[in-house]
Amino acid sequence: MLAPLAPVATAQVQTPSPQLAATPSGNADEGKKLFASYGCYQCHGREAQGSSATGPRLGPKPIAFTAFSQYVRRPTGQMPPYTAKVVSDTDLANIYAFVQARPAPSTGIPLLRDQ
Amino acid sequence: MTNRRDFLKSAAVTGAAAALVPSGAAADEPRQTPAATQASAPIAPREVDPSDGGEVITTDRPGGDFMVDVIKTLDFEYVASNPGSSFRGIHESIINYGNNKSPEFITCCHEESSVAMAHGYFKVEGKPMAVLCHGTVGLQHAAMAIYNAYCDRVPVYIMAGNSLDATLRRPGVEWSHSVQDAAVMIRDFIKWDDLPISLPHFAESAVRAYKIAMTPPMMPVLMVLDGGLQEDPISPEVASRLRIPKLTRATPPQGDSGAVAEAARLLVNAQNPVIVADRAARTPAGVQRLIELAETLQAPVVDQGGRMNFPSRHPLNQSSAARQLVAEADVILGLELTDFWGTVSAVRDGLTRTSRTIAKPGTKLISITALDLATKGNYQDFQRYPEVDVAMAADAEATLPALTEACQRLITADRRTAFETRRRRLAEAHGRALERARAEAAYAWDASPISTARMTMELWAQIKKEDWSLVAESGIMSDWTAQLWNFEKHYQSLGGSGGAGVGYGAPAAIGAALANKKHGRLSVTIQGDGDFLYAPGVWWTAAHHRIPLLAVMHNNRAYHQEVMHLQRMANRHNRGVTRAHIGTTIDDPNVDFAKIAQGMGVHAQGPITNPSDLAPAIARALEVVKRGEPSLIDVVTQPR
Predict the structure, then answer these.
(1) What is the CATH number of domain A25-103?
(2) How much is the pTM?
(3) Of B568, B579, B581, B587, which to mutate for an interface test with A (greatest number of A Cβ within 10 Å)?
(4) How far is B240 from chain A (nearest CA, A)?
(5) Domain segments of chain A: what residues?
(6) Do B118 and B142 form a contact (C-beta atoms < 8 A)?
(7) B528 has which bridge partners?
(8) Model confidence at A53, in pLDDT bands (50, 70, 90)?
(9) Claim to verify: residue B308 and residue B348 sit in the same structural domain
(10) Residue B12 maps to a domain
(11) What is the ipTM of this complex?
(12) B280-335 pLDDT per residue, tens
């Protein structure tokens, strides 16, 4: 029997980061594995594409790493906290690299035109 | 003729006499096999009179025939049932005396399927389907589906067999299948029940049950049918008293005129009114009435989706902005809301549970709901107490015309100008929301597992020019259909299960598809994998009864909602999520849903993991469905 989780807050806006220079370098391939093993995909989708029901889209242009990290450690919405005890700073950098590396969506998909 | 009671009395005497024969005589009798002692054994052997010359037990007019006469006046098209001996009398009367028409017997493989089929059927057809089951094990199986229907305010007409006279029961199974008070197990979540002790009593209660079930708030009802009443001949004395009462449906309750006037005053003078609808549109007329009110006020409408309340492409449909609209509103009108408190509040399920009101202080809340007329205490589906300013204990659909007229009378030229400005603003917002949804749908478009947006739009592309009906969505899927499909008609969206009891999706979809069949509509369902596995025998029912239905699976190989709950717990307890799959995922091995469906006689394809394979698969499935049969496509999808 399902008890639905509350709808996600829409506070996380995907805007280009002005602080990319401060972003630690991460390994996107490693981040992909961690994105799955830490269960990020469960709310945000395997491609970090997000869901209106569970968690917002994270990539390909994520919020600044500082804000990203802060939210993961101390979320203010429905997301459960991922402390450093559970997800190390290195792992978090790799995950960030993965969501950054997501491809931009195709444009002009016929099925998404006005119909 | 000898009735059942007299026959069984003589059989009991014979049985007792047989017990007194010498042991040598008993040794000549056939040995009783172990199978004969099992619950599924046909009829207990001791009931059979082995002597020659016993009286032939027949009747041309059993009580079940009269029950069928009564039921036919209630205009049931179908009775869904998994067969059972406690209602063998009326079963036989339906298929022979009643010629298996009105109602036609629909063979189900589980009582939960019977009730959920009736649930889905009602939401298309607007009238109940009958269900027959055992008063004991049948109702036990049916209970969760009955609870769903209760929470969803859907009438289901349930008849349960029972054997009341303990001295007439067959030894063994019939005792296990008898109960003093069959209804007690489900009485907390049905509207009414009765146990008629005569056929005239049955007639009156049968008509009364229908009337009660169909009066808002609608809910399931139960009639318990004694086996003797079904099977025994109708005596001349009883025959002289038989009549079928006239059914007069109760008109739904309308809101008090003073409350309607006050609500109109608040709505017309509001700067930022919002209309929120959940189970408001009981019928197609409800959709039109809500459009009239919204356009009169040029007010935004948030459709919470309990029913198809408001066209998705109407410029005043602002469902995707619900939270923002509630936060900015000065008047909120709630129409048959399941949860008004939750509509105006935010709850955080974090390290501690917190909640806060998101509506501004002073915002006026107006509620119209028939649930205020019938709230029970045990099951807690009534949600938290909403502190509203105007509460009409009334049916929203029935009240809307009076409310719209009252608003029209109060609108001045100034207000009309303000409304026009609001209309333009909302139309622009609606257009932007649709474009945003389309842009978001493009992400992960080519991913495997297949994105739910891609699956939704591949399906839409091939059904949008048909007379389609989305009969169920049993996997939670990011609201893509609500955001991207063009819902216009009442039957195009039927809402959810009501009680969130998983296992509703497949049988409700098949029941709804059965209702759509005679209208020539294309029934489509999005079928969750967890839901599929509850009582998959219903796919055989779909194949057996030639019920056309296109089922596209949202197979994320998990009870995904529970995966996330486990993740939440694990993180809250600082233990990581690496074991959250234990007990929550449906893999190792992956279920071959197509093979299961094929084994039930349903055309099926999959598992499909490449998004490019989806369109051709849908095209093939549609050919089957248009021939009048069900077809299922197993699609391996993203979690949401």
Answers:
(1) 1.10.760.10
(2) 0.91
(3) B568
(4) 51
(5) 25-103
(6) no
(7) B554
(8) confident
(9) yes
(10) no
(11) 0.85
(12) 999 999 999 999 999 999 999 999 999 999 999 999 999 999 999 999 999 999 99
